[in-house]
Amino acid sequence: MMRSIRKNHRYILFFIVFSFLITGSFYFLFLQSAVIHYQYTKRNYDASLIALNEKKQLAVSDIHAQKELHRIEQQNSDFYAAIQSNQSLDQLLQLATNSAEKSGFSVIQAAPVVFKQKNNQPADDQIQLQLSGTYQCLFYFIDQLNQSAWPYILTELKIQHADQFNIQLDLRSPS
Amino acid sequence: MQRIYTRGLSLTSFKNTVLLFFERLLKCLFKISDNTPLMSTLEIIFEKERCRALITANNQTRNDCVTEKIMAHLFEDKNKLPEIIETLKPLYKKNMRVIVTIPSQEAMTHEFELDGTLKETEVMQFLSSKSVLFFGYLAETLCLDYDTFRGDDNNNKQKITVIAAHRSLIQTIQAAFQKLKFPLHCIKVSNNSTSINLLPWRQQQAKRKKQKQCATLVFFAIVVFIVMIVLKYQFLYLANHYTKKTQELNSENSQIVLNHPHQHIALLQQLKSMRVKKTAAIRENQLAENLFKIISTTLPNSITLSSLYFNSHALTISGVSDQLSTIHTYSDALQQNQAWKKMSISEIHNDLQNKSQMDFTIQVKP
Q: Do B274 and A27 touch (CB under 8 A)?
């Protein structure tokens, strides 16, 4: 057997090279275009399947979301309406000054605080108020803030004169 | 019932045909011999003045001489050779091996030793190149054949016996046989025990081998071609299948209509996140409110607060009192609350203008 292989090793080598060449050339002549076409259609099919599944999932989650929104709307209609209205910082400032006035404060000055964070990220929503009133008004004001739909946090309070309150409100999520 | 029977019969016969075909194919490919007796031999022995024909039936154990025919014939008279062969032709039967033996005077013999590793073609090349030296004639004018005998194993040499005859003689014999369509398998030399055959069988063998190899390559190429064609149609079929499926999926996709689905989900997420933020904000505000309430409720009448500073890191209260003990009482009262544990009086000093009064500063770190 080994002798026969040794004797025919040239032919075996030639046969291997020939088989590679013939297979390669036949592949490029006949099969390549069909394989490319097949791969293209398979990719399209996969993409369509993924898109359909995503859309189905989206439809299901949309139904869930709508149900949940309806429930929230019925339970907390004010909160729902406030959040859906998507108010700007100026409107939030106006809401805060209204609350201060309702609490018995007189508004001396009110302004949104603008400062830049690191890495050029958008600044947190902050409001600075200079109010005039009594210490009791402060508690009413905190209650008013807690009752509103928006998450106002009293982050800074400075009382340097008997009836002058410098208050800073933050609208970011607490850390 | 009749129909089923006929169908079963035809299937069996088809199966048998297929099996027979494969059996024959295997026999052809691997040269499997069955138990049929070996073919008999017709040996035509030319001597100087006569010609003998022997038919030998070959058995595995011994050769039995069945027929012998003797004719007077001068071997040198080549013109009469076709007549003699025609006379002997009736002795030939199908599948018989025909051997012609020529007189030893017509052949030349030479013996020598050669490297044992040489291949058949190399030995033949060597003999062709040395034919003038060995026999005095060019290789083109001779028909050569050799037989090897393994010599001493240590020196790796092989003993070679070469026999040559004039090509014209061999061609004359071949032509006479061909003319009568009488097969000729071997031309031997009388009084020689070797298996030398002066016909160009080595060339024919090499040619057959090359043809076989070429046939294998062509067969392989055809098989690859067929496989490629089958694969191509398989891929085209699959591509067509996937195209149809894609169209179905796309039409199904277009039937699902959603009205701003992302808006609902985004609003829901905003609501949820805002609720979390609001809860946390209320907690923070209540903490601050609690602190402010404690400051006012525990404040003694003899202390007046002058300033208050609060942020998420610290709370600082500054005030004025006329008694040091009152400041400490206030400090103790504040510290009793859980939120004021990290409280400290950072500063107490007399007022520069009014020496009876004392300024103090209390710091709390949450």
A: no
ipTM for the predicted complex? 0.71
Tell me which DSSP letter residue B323 carries. Answer: -
Identify the residue among B117, B219, B249 best suited for mutation to test binding to A, counting A beta carbons within 10 A and taking the highest. Answer: B249
Angstrom distances, CA of residue B292 to CA of A157, A175, B296: 10, 22, 7
Contact B246 A45 (CB under 8 A): yes
> Cβ A155–B312 below 8 Å, yes or no?
yes
Q: What is the pTM assigned to this prediction?
A: 0.56
B304-362 pLDDT, tens digit per residue, is 998 999 988 888 999 998 888 888 888 888 888 766 767 888 888 887 777 778 889 98
Q: DSSP assignment of A58-105, as one string? A: HHHHHHHHHHHHHHHHHH-HHHHHHHHH---HHHHHHHHHHHHHHTT-
pLDDT at B3: 42
The residue behind tokens 């054949």 is B145
Residue A51 binned pLDDT confidence (cut-offs 50, 70, 90)? very high
Chain B partners within 8 Å of A152 (Cβ): 281, 285
Q: Which chain A residue is nearest to residue B314, measuring alpha carbons? A: A156
Mean per-residue pLDDT over chain B, rounded: 83
